[in-house]
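Box 4.2: Ligand-aware structure prediction
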Amino acid sequence: MEALKGIAGSEGYGTGRAVIISNDIPDYEDRKITDAAAEKDRLQKAFDGFLRKTADMIEEMKDRVGESNTAILEGHIMMLNDPYMQEEIMNRIDEGICAETAVKEACDTFIQIFSQTDDELIRQRATDVGDIKLRLLRLLTGTEDINISDVPKGTILVAEDLTPSMTSGIVKDNVAGIVTGMGGVTSHSAILSRALEIPAVLSVKDVMKKVKNGMIIAIDGSSGIAVIDADENTVAEYEEKRSSHLKNKEALREYIGKATRTADGIPVELFGNIGRPEEAEKVLECDGEGIGLFRTEFLFMDSDSLPDEEKQFEAYKTAAQTMGDREIIIRTLDIGGDKEIPYMGLSREDNPFLGYRAVRYCLDHKDIYSVQLRAILRASAYGHIKIMVPLVTCVEEIRSVRRLIEDIKAELDSKGIAYDKGIETGVMIETPSASEIADLLAKEADFFSIGTNDLTQYTMAVDRGNPKVSYLYSVYQPSVIRSLKRIINAADKAGIKVGMCGEAAADALLTPLLIAFGLNEFSVSPVSILKTRKNIGSWTKAEAVKVAESVLLMDTAEKIEDFLKKHVK
Ligand code: PEP
Ligand code: MG
């Protein structure tokens, strides 16, 4: 028995027998070919077969995991339909290379290029190309596609990397868990396992070497632990954890339809965060009262070129209509930093998090920004939309954005195009500068939303993705907690609403502090909505203030975290 540590990819517990899914490419003979036309015909048939099969998988998947999760496979169709990719493969056949080797060589070149970037999203493209390569080779060699849909009940899937086409076949009732050797929290396998609500532990070192088919495995997807060759006691322990986890999850359903209030009846708003318009439905399913953060950069990342005004308008309108009267806060483009978009021409910077990103980029590309703002304004005629500006550090930035919005409103007025004339514009408070001048920004903005993911990074001067300094990346640092208090006080004094859309909004340990400081709105990932409603409801203001008073006297993150752990309900 051995407990292996990985990344917590999808919460929950599971036990079962390992079924190893190999990503090995099928054997084939590397031939020199003489009839290029016939070989190209074979290759074309493989392309056609790939596109047909993928389209079928998408249709089948829509019913099981919802439309928002088919984007990855749609991306595969887009990639293989790209004339550049097809030519890269086809042209090799003219050099006398057989179709299999042409596929392998061309795909390996793409994989190498994508794997060498620092950007996780682009690195994931390497997984996509690897998946395309494997499936094309299977088609060319007549090898059966891996059929995950046939695995028996109580299976723990083990793979170096679970590709999207493999994951699409998963039958939720048969798969008790997933363990992979690669992938992070935002990897395809993580996203899909969360959508299917299957516990997953990712990036487990040497997992393919250590696990044998049929081995008993117990996994904890909430803390990222996979126990391999688990003994009876461990299995029993994990099974118990699993049933209590499921019971808790089920019990949370009682909070559906309830108002979000503190124990002494103070109302608080509880919203959801989304990245794609379809996810608005998930927010409603989880009984979110609005959307506190629509990260629009996904619209740009999911596309190979700038999404035009109509495409953006449709996306914002769809989300707004889904939410009806409920509020939806659309954050304008937040790229740069760790979010790179290849076609936007961002060059490499020594300090990307301190560089050309978010509102800085947008104000320097007013042509691109105006298209987005116009699309949001037009969509505001169809729901309760608010505009939110990321990474604001000084008042000039919000003033410039407001001027641009006023110009676009005048243009829409002159053309008789409808929009919400009372639309509000708020700022994200996610830098120490914005926190310091929160009183000044409160005079310029209609509302605040605190982005704790970045606020922690910038306050502590610690790259949020760098494991070497992650010990400093803590929202319990006294500096971060003081900053939260100051921001909320400033908003309160100015009489504007203040929300929080960073991950910390869902942290049960912080709930009493946020209630004590007077946060008006919590915006969390849809799966955390009901849990957060329960947490908020367990504190009276007086109890929360007492906890906050003690915490504000403490001098280290460790003491604060320990204290909160002891007092959390
Ligand atoms: C944040 O910084 O807290 C935030 C919500 O934005 P993002 O994680 O997209 O930077
Ligand atoms: Mg941010």
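In the box above, the bound molecule is magnesium ion. The CA atoms of residues 75 and 303 lie 9 Å apart.
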